[in-house]
Amino acid sequence: MPPESEPIKEENQGVQAATEPQSQPEPEAPQPQIQPPPTPEPVTPVQSPKPSIPSLHYPFFGSYPVAFDFAVQPTDERIKKKYQEWGIVAHNGIDFGLQEGTEILACDEGVVTQAGYNGDHGISVTIKHSWGTSVYSHLQSLGVLINDGVTKVQFIGASGQTGFTTGPHLHFGIQPNSPDTNNGYLGYINPAPYLTETSPLPQFPQSPLSPQSPEPPDLSSDLSAEPPSPPQSPQSTPPTPPNPSYPPVASPSADQEEIEKQAIAMFDARLKENSMKGNQSKKAKRDVAIQKIFTFAQEKKRITNEQVRDLLHISQSTASDYLSDLVNRGMLKVEGKGKATVYLF
Asked: Where is the composition biased (Basic and acidic residues) (predicted)?
């Protein structure tokens, strides 16, 4: 076994390696220069155009607090369930804290498209305007009927707590033309930016005893100031008349008559005021009754005086009066005469 055989082999390998041509690295292809992408310009998100709604009047005289604002989430679980039933994510109107019987006004001119019982809204009124609709809910009574034309600030009903409610208030909502019914509020929008007009509470004529009226003269000082007793001379000397420096005591008869006149005038003014309020209340009750009859006629298509009496528990003459009113307004048609009279929707 030759000891040098292995080194010789290594030497031969070394020679072979030295004689082999060494491979040269291939030149790299020029890399294309990558240009940075252009900076995109900011894109303004497309927003729905703002509804063209004019200045609106608050639906009442004076000023009242907001009890529950637009887009507010309720904490009452019952109300939350109702919101789910109605398909809204939060409150879709404004609740104003009004006492029962407060006059409700139209926020703008338009035509009444709904007036009467309206499910959870209770007694409500819906008005169609040139720009959209307005809704007034939970009323106590009505002041208008369907198809009535109304002007801005016209009386349309009285506030109450009918329908699904936790207390007396007015729910007020507006919906513009072509509403976005997928906005989470059934197409209703916040009315606050458009409510810019107010009117003070109407003042009744001042009674005669108001602070601006002349007050009756105060006679207390004159009546209480007695003239000094004149000096009495012994026996034969007559009494000396009162000191002329004191004014004579005024007779209260003329002033008493004036006070009585003022009291009578004040009583008359109060009587007229109460009569006006009573007439408004009677009109509201009459309108509610007529609305019930009209709704009943819509359902039945044909109604009689007897059916109306049973519906409202009223006399025959009152039922005839209400039905005649609906006929005169063109809301019902009459067929037949006497007991055979039928009213058609």
From this structure: 1-12
Rg (CA), the chain: 45
**What would be the CATH architecture of the domain defined by 267-345?**
Orthogonal Bundle (1.10)
Q: What angle do CA 285, 288, 291 make, to 5 degrees?
A: 150
In the chain, where are the structural domains located?
56-197, 267-345
**pLDDT tens sequence across 165-199:** 989 999 999 999 999 999 999 999 999 999 999 99
Q: What is the pLDDT of residues 260-281, one digit of tens each?
A: 666 676 667 666 666 676 677 7
At the second CATH level, the architecture of 56-197 is: Distorted Sandwich (2.70)
Burial (CB < 10 A; 0-12, 13-18, 19+), residue 13, is exposed
Q: Please name which of 141, 174, 173, 144 lies closest in space to residue 160, comparing C-alpha atoms.
A: 141
Give Dmax over CA atoms of the chain in angstroms: 194
Q: What separation in angstroms does the CA of 81 have from each of 73, 115, 119?
A: 12, 26, 16
Phi, psi torsion values for 67, nearest 5 degrees: -85, -30
**Encoding tokens for residue 32?**
């294309």
For 158, the enclosing helix (H) or strand (E) is strand 155-159
